[in-house]
Amino acid sequence: MAANELKDLIPMSEWLPGIKRPLIIAGPCSAESPEQLMQTAKEIKVLGQVDIFRAGIWKPRTFPNNFEGVGSIGLEWLREVKKETGMPVATEVGSVKHVFEAIKYGVDLIWIGARTTANPFAMQEIAEALQGVDIPVLVKNPLSPDLELWDGGINRIYAAGIRKLGAIHRGFSTWGKSDLRNTPHWQVPIELKRIHPNLPIIGDPSHICGNRTMIADIAQRAMDFNLDGLMIESHCNPDEAWSDAKQQVTPTRLGEILSGLKIKTEHTSDEKFIRTLDELRSQIDMYDDQILNILEARMKIAEKIGLCKKENNVSILQTARWSDIINKMVEKGAGKGLSDKCISEIFQSIHEESINHQINVTRD
Ligand SMILES: O=C(O)C(=O)C[C@]1(C(=O)O)C=C[C@@H](O)C=C1
Fold first, then answer.
1. Virtual torsion, Cα 266, 268, 272, 273, nearest 10 deg
2. Which residues form the Chorismate mutase domain (predicted)?
3. Can you list the positions of beta strands (E) in the chain?
C-alpha cells in the first residue's frame, strides 16, 4: 500500500503535560454513577502508572435496550474526577453532538469507536466538527480487518487539522467461537505502523480479550510489537459493572498488570547487539534474495506449462494438482516448524501468481 503521509504530527509526549511512553489510559468501560467513577479514579490515581482516565459516556451497543451510557451528565462527573485527582480525562465520541459535548465539558482526549470508524459519513461529520479543536484524537480500528478503512478514517481526522492524532488497535470481529473476543490480526496494526511510522498506536487488550485472564498477555504482546501505549478497562467493582463486566479488572489488578510489563524499545545503542543484528539481518537478506530467485524460476516454468496447455486446449486451473501441492506443502511445512496458516497463505499466493503468469503468456 502506498504511504499517504501524515506530516507534522505532534509527538505523543507533547499531547498533554506529563504523559510518557507507553501511554497508559485506564478507567471503567462506562461511567455509571458519580460514586463509581470517583472511587475507580482514586484507586487508579494511587497506582501512579496511569496517564489518562477513561470512561464511556455514550455506549454504542449491538442490541437495543442494553445500557447505552449515562449521557452528558457523566461528563460532569468526569470533570469532577479531573478536578479531584488531576488526571486528564478521555471518552469515546460517535457523533457531532458527542464532540461538542465533550469539548464543552473539557474532556482532554477523545477516541472514536470501531463501529463509527467503519462509517465514512459519520467520520466525515465528526472530522468537520473537530475543525479548530486542539485535543488528541485516537481512531479505533473498524470492526473488520480493513486497513484502508481505518487509514481512511484517520486521514479524515487529519484533514480536519488534528495533529495530536493516534490509533487504537482493539482487534477485529470474527464469526464463531474463539478464546479472544476480537481477533488481534497483529499484521494490520504492524502495517499501519509501517505506512505511518509517526502515528502512535495504542493497544486495547480489554476489547481484544473480552475476559480478564488474558489481558496481561495481550498487553505484553502489544509492547513486544512496539505499540505506543495501552488502554485497559478498570472498574472499582468489575463484577457489578453495567457493561463489559467480564473484561474489566480492579485497579489493583491493573497495577499488577502494568508492573509486570516488560517495556521494549525498537532501538538500542548497545554495539554488540547492533553487530549481531546486522550479521543476522544480512543472512535474512540473502535468504530473501534466494526466495525471489526461486519464485522467478518457478513462474518461468509455470509460463511454459501455460503455453503447453494453450496448445492442447487444457484449462489453466488444475484443481487436483493444486490440492495435491497445498496438502503436501502443509504437511512438509509442519515437519519444518512452519504453521499451516503460513504455508497455506504463501502457496495460495504463489498459485494465484502462477495462474496470472499463465493468463498473461497465453493472452491472444
Ligand atoms: O501443474 C499445473 O498444471 C500448473 O499449471 C502449475 C500450477 C502451480 O503453479 O503449481 C498452477 C496452476 C494449476 O492450478 C496447478 C498448478
1. -20
2. 271-362
3. 23-27, 52-54, 89-93, 109-112, 137-140, 165-169, 201-203, 229-233
| Whether residues 175 and 286 fall in one domain | no
Q: How high is the ipTM of this complex?
A: 0.98
Q: In angstroms, what CA-CA distances link 290 with 96, 239, 285, 299? A: 53, 55, 9, 14
Are residues 125 and 83 both part of a single domain? yes
C-beta of 90 in contact with ligand 1 (< 6 A) = no
In this structure, is residue 6 part of a structural domain?
no
Rounded Cα distance between 152 and 55, Å, is 26
Domain boundary among 203, 235, 260: 260
In ligand 1, the atom with minimum distance to the C-alpha of 321 is 15
Number of domain units in the chain: 2
Domain that holds residue 186: 12-260
Say yes or no: 107 and 241 in one domain: yes
pLDDT in tens, 226-256: 999 999 999 999 999 999 999 999 999 999 9
Diameter over CA atoms, the chain = 82
225 lines ligand 1 (CB under 6 A): no
**Residue-level length of the chain:** 364
What count of other Cβ atoms lies within 10 Å of the Cβ of residue 246? 14
Q: Which residues of the chain have pLDDT under 50?
A: 1-2
Q: State how far the alpha carbon of 169 is from the alpha carbons of 53, 188, 319, 323, in Å.
A: 18, 9, 38, 36
pTM here is 0.86
- Is any atom of ligand 1 closer than 6 Å to the C-beta of 321? yes
